[in-house]
What we know:
Blueprint: E1 4-9, E2 15-21, E3 26-30, H1 41-47, E4 52-56, H2 75-88, E5 93-98, H3 100-111, E6 116-122, H4 129-136, H5 150-161, H6 184-197, H7 202-211, H8 214-217, E7 224-229, H9 235-243, E8 250-255, H10 260-267, E9 291-297, E10 300-307, E11 315-318, H11 329-332, E12 341-344, H12 361-375, E13 380-385, H13 388-398, E14 403-409, H14 416-425, H15 437-448, H16 472-485, H17 488-498, H18 501-504, E15 512-517, H19 524-532, E16 537-541, H20 549-556
Parallel strand pairs: 3-4, 3-5, 5-6, 6-7, 7-8, 11-12, 11-13, 13-14, 14-15, 15-16
Antiparallel strand pairs: 1-2, 2-4, 9-10, 10-12
Amino acid sequence: MNIERRFLSLPDGKQVHFRMAGRGPAMILMHPSPISSEALLPAMSVFSKQFTCIALDTPGYGLSDDSVTEKEDLWGYADAVVHVLDAFKLESAVIYGAATGAQIGTQFARRFPKRTRLLMLDGAGHFTDEERDTFSNGYFVDLTPRRDGTHLLAAWDSSRHLSVFFPWMSSRLEDRIQSGPAPINSVQDHVNDMLRAGPDYRIAYWEAMKVEKHSNTAQVEVPTLLSLNAGSMMRPHTEALIAMGLPDNFTIVHSTPQTRYQALLEAAANYTNDPACPPPPPQTNTEPTVQNAMVNVPGGQLRARLCLEGEGLPLVAIHDPAGSSHLVEPIFNPYLGRRPVIAFDNPGNGESDSVIDTLNSETYAQVLNAALDELGFDAVDVLGRYSGGPVAMEMSFQRPERVKHIVQAGVSFYEGEEQASLIENYTPSVAPRWDGSHLMTAWSIMRDQSLYWPWFNQTKDGIIWQDGAIDVALTDLRTRELLKCGDRYQDAYNAMWRYPMREKLPRLTVPCLLCHPTWEPVGYTTALAQAVDPRCKSAELAPSMADWHTDLDAFFDTP
Length: 559
């Protein structure tokens, strides 16, 4: 199955992220909360045999912006689906929803029956008022980032116990699920999705629970397939819904966990002769704002944060290890509308596919050059933060006609005992552990990176003298990005530590600025690198990345 990820730009400037696969009539797929369309890949692998599957990230989840104002009873989420149909120029579509997605599909079919070719409900049922009261008391945890990182443990506890009790916070024997806990990597994936959705992860989740009742579902008048999965923890609730009586337009589809999608596909056979789904609309944005895009490269796709409005050469910003394009946005925000700006999530980082087997500066550069080929840019300036500097250099070596200027903001120049110590101590494992303790390891690393250099040198000599050093929101973002990388972050950092700057810097044939902000503890590497290649310019930048553009402009204007 060939899956392509895309973004749909809405008239208000917000974006919807979706996955698309298959050929044939259009099927819109919607996922459970609080996760994303990635959870729908098994369904897409089956449904794409007969349908063009368009699996949405619900607004506010995954990579979709929160574009919904009318959240009560999910009506605004139903309206968001209409925007997708309109963008594809679809009169109607088959609507598939699982759990929360099933309730959004129900509300969509009620409000827009003429645009619902067929409704497919998976993991839908009936909850009593008493059961809803239970869910309202303790089911949703507070994910507001906290200085001590304990919000991460709250996410882990609830995610792990989703496969132990239903509802997860119960300890009653009758609520025990008859299986072992979910695989540890699956728990981590669920945690990642919760943290990405943030403190508002509960909104669509809770609104779905509020409308998941017979009196609401029975008002659907379009042809509807209701999955009754013998192995689902939702089975008692689905059986309760059926027992209360449903209209003749409902068909019950019996299945097991192994056959649930195939059974639904076979039941939908009468709806596979509609016209084929048109191609996705082009992504448009004529405002000077940063938007997401997925860029095809060999083996997968990279997520880019970009704004292509403005004149002159595009500025490409490359983030540091275990980060994402969000971390360099403060650098290029002053350029929005003045010149094109592009920041990719490096392969295996952020939201980009892991398309590299061996991580090093050269292979990163190959993929980023391929992404610029796809975007059609023959000439660019490149700014690299920490490990991004060596990547920028390798991009220049591989495509000398493309890279016109290089900025290395935080120079990767490490040798001898310092290099050996960094390799040995800087990147302890953050692989998921059953008790969630890896979360506190990840949080502590990212917090202490702003307090000490290196972070493990927690002595007076290691202090970073910076005001406001503990930025909880930034630490939370950095930790989330680290957890998505997992232990591959070790290879990403080691590529930076091991880069032979002394050998390679003199090979550059383009102007290079070596620089660092005033507070940065590794500023000494700027002097080391300039001593190796006096042709390079050097600068001490303002403390805030948002103020760097003045010094950068002066450099970019040099021939």
